[in-house]
Amino acid sequence: MTAIALALCVSVSWGVGDFLGGVSSRRLPTLTVLAVSQPVGLVGLVALALAVGDEPLGAGGVAAAAAAGAGGALGLAGLYRGMAVGAMGVVAPISTLAAVLPLVVGLARGERPGALQLTGAVLILAGVALVSREPGTGGARVAAGVGLALVAATGFGLYFVFIDVAADESASWAVVAARATASALCLGTAAARGGVSVPSRAVPALALIGFFDASANALLAVALTRGYVSLVSVLASLYPVVTVLLARTVLGERVARTQAVGIAGAVGGVALVSAG
Q1: Distance between CA 257 and CA 276 in Å, rounded?
Q2: pLDDT in tens, 48-107
């Protein structure tokens, strides 16, 4: 399977998992969602790594994977909490700014984007500016959850950059090390706050979140070994399309017309960056 196809599969898996995470975070504390879903995903990733039989990571790979895991945990915390307090159709698209960080890193490494990529970057920024505003009685104001969405974008951007480095040594074990770090951070924070209480009816949904998120991360690691981080990351960042469609279909969420234009611009910008 090509890097492009893998990255698109990543976006679908992340989109479904993020939708479930956002819905669950409206019913349970965000920390509870993370403290359960992250370790669940870790079990599956360890089994996959053992089955694949890749060589273990060296010290540098472990450090990069750990940094990726910390960034990923920060990103998920920001995204889930943002979608709990704001509209999924607003918060999820803003988090696509995560794709900008790998692009910047690529520029620093000497990569030079084409005209389509530069145009796409401008569209992304303009789209985010529109989608982050919502009409109010006293004029436009920042939409709920925007700040948390930017935190998510930063965390996911760091994940993209560092998991790319770790995956060069071992894709499967890079994802395991990253998820182990994220799980340790979530469980440690939960323990420090007195633990978590999980209703039995919520367990299946939390397990599904862990499954979809872990699957996306495993596919991403493989995709990064077959394609450029700048291309793979922006394609994987199309996940908000899935989340928004599910939010509109299942929850009946609606966004303002200007925000809809912003969403279209952001997604179109990601497409142009990918095409370039």
Answers
A1: 28
A2: 889 888 888 999 999 999 999 999 999 999 988 888 887 777 787 788 788 778 877 777
| Cβ–Cβ under 8 Å, residues 33 and 209 | yes
Residue 204 CB neighbour total at 10 angstroms? 9
> Does the global pTM surpass 0.85?
no
Phi, psi of 138 (to 5 degrees): -105, 25
Residues 269, 141: Cα–Cα separation, whole Å:
24
Nearest Cα to Cα of residue 183 among 39, 46, 67, 62: 39
Shortest CA distance to 269 belongs to which of 105, 132, 100, 150? 100
Cα(32)–Cα(246) distance, integer angstroms: 23
What SS3 state is found at 55?
Answer: coil
Q: Kindly provide the residue ranges of all beta strands, DSSP E only, lying in the chain, ordered along the sequence.
A: 133-134, 141-142
Residue whose entry in the numeric block shows the structure tokens 């560092």: 162
DSSP readout, 86-149? S-HHHHHHHGGGGGHHHHHHHHHTT----HHHHHHHHHHHHHHHHHTEE--TTS-EEPTTHHHH
C-alpha 225 chain-centroid distance: 19
Place of tokens 């182990």: 180
Cα of first residue to Cα of last residue in the chain, in angstroms, is 21
- Give the integer Cα–Cα distance in Å for 102 and 153: 11
The answer for residues whose C-beta is within 8 angstroms of residue 188's C-beta and 6 or more apart is none
Q: What is the pLDDT of residues 250-261, one digit of tens each?
A: 888 776 777 778
Tokens matching residue 80? 């889930």
Contact between residue 211 and residue 38 where contact means Cβ atoms under 8 Å apart: no
| Contact (CB, 8 A) for 275 and 238 | no
Instruction: Give the span between the Cα atoms of 246 and 19, in whole angstroms.
Output: 7
